[in-house]
């Protein structure tokens, strides 16, 4: 075992092209905005984990598809998947203190104010996964 914890995240856009973010309730990044997601449980596939984590943190049902990319943050090996929103009502829950849709300007403002988790904006830009204006 390499000591890394496998995690997943979901990149979800609404019908206006806004990106789904949650405010983290726990470390790492407590109080900062991030993509929803979390640890992959034993015996769970990445897709199953994305569906479970997004339902727990946002109240939304999603269908994951393409792997957008992966990053390592400390001991976390995070795999972020593009997802389609299929239902549910946006409600912060579990490891999130808030959840909301953000457009491009709001995402930049959160980053400039230091309210995004480290490197999120750069990573989303590199993966061509930024919200619409």
TrEMBL record:
Single GO MF descriptor: hydrolase activity
Cofactor: Mg(2+)
Residues spanning the signal sequence: none
Domain Nudix hydrolase: 3-130
Keywords annotated in UniProt: Hydrolase
A Pfam short name: NUDIX
Keyword check for Mitochondrion: no
Record family assignment: Belongs to the Nudix hydrolase family.
Protein name: NUDIX domain-containing protein
Organism whose genome encodes this protein: Amycolatopsis dendrobii
